[in-house]
Design brief:
heterodimer, A: mainly beta, 11 strands, B: mainly beta, six-stranded mixed β-sheet, five-stranded antiparallel β-sheet
């Protein structure tokens, strides 16, 4: 398996634009997580899915953020409209209950909002 | 409130020396504790997992300990190498029914100097 795949790896956009981040989890994993990481706040869980269903979205900062998982092999995190304070590295991770909940992380998307 | 605290926040040691990183937690109900290593520019990677009944577990030069009574864990690195320079994050899992919550520490930034 290629591991968790994220795209794009880097995104630079202007304030007010819509940003869509994409993630393909490891095949067979039933959990998918979206994280945001900054120097100031460290790693923050935004939302996670179990079997494509959102379980906990309490970490989503505000209504500008939304996440979907239309099927077991694809998820998106959308920011609309984007703001400079959204600049961060966004990680997607997946896990399987049968593996002790070890999370496997993707390479991340570095988002810069100007 | 479920919390995970790590110390020190950062640490600089010379190559070849040993070091110990600390993790204190107040998490209930406790399921397991993981140590992750995050290299700069990459997602975290699991080093080891500790369950309630385990006191010590080794992974090469990394040895993790768990004291479930005092709710403390440590990660000991022996004969450090330059490649050990990274952030080390302690994560505690609390499981309730079929869903679980991961509580992430802020991490310890370790720098190995030649």
């Amino acid at each position: 398996d290629a591991g968790v795949i994220q795209s794009p790896r880097h995104e630079v956009t202007e304030m007010g634009q819509e940003v869509t981040l994409r993630c393909k989890p490891i095949s067979g994993h039933d959990y998918l997580f979206w994280y945001r990481q900054t120097m100031m706040r460290g790693l923050e869980l935004l939302i996670y899915f179990n079997n494509n269903v959102p379980i906990d979205d309490s970490g989503m900062p505000e209504d500008r953020f939304s996440a979907k998982m239309p099927n077991a092999s694809f998820s998106t995190l959308k920011i609309q409209p984007s703001e400079p304070r959204d600049s961060a590295v966004y990680f997607c991770a997946s896990s399987a209950r049968t593996s002790g909940n070890e999370q496997f992380f993707g390479p991340g998307t570095r988002l810069t909002v100007l | 409130k479920n919390q995970v605290e790590q110390s020190p926040q950062s640490l600089i040691i010379l190559e070849g020396k040993n070091c110990t990183l600390q993790c204190n937690y107040t998490v209930s109900p406790f399921s397991n504790l993981r140590w992750y290593k995050q290299d700069t520019g990459r997602g975290p990677v699991s080093l080891t997992i500790m369950t309630f009944s385990e006191n010590t577990k080794s992974n090469g030069r990394y040895t993790a300990t768990l004291d479930a009574d005092t709710k403390q864990s440590s990660l000991h690195i022996t004969a450090s190498q330059l490649s050990d320079s990274a952030s080390y994050i302690c994560v505690v899992s609390a499981t309730r029914d079929s869903n679980y919550q991961l509580i992430w520490g802020a991490g310890t930034k370790l720098i190995i100097k030649p």
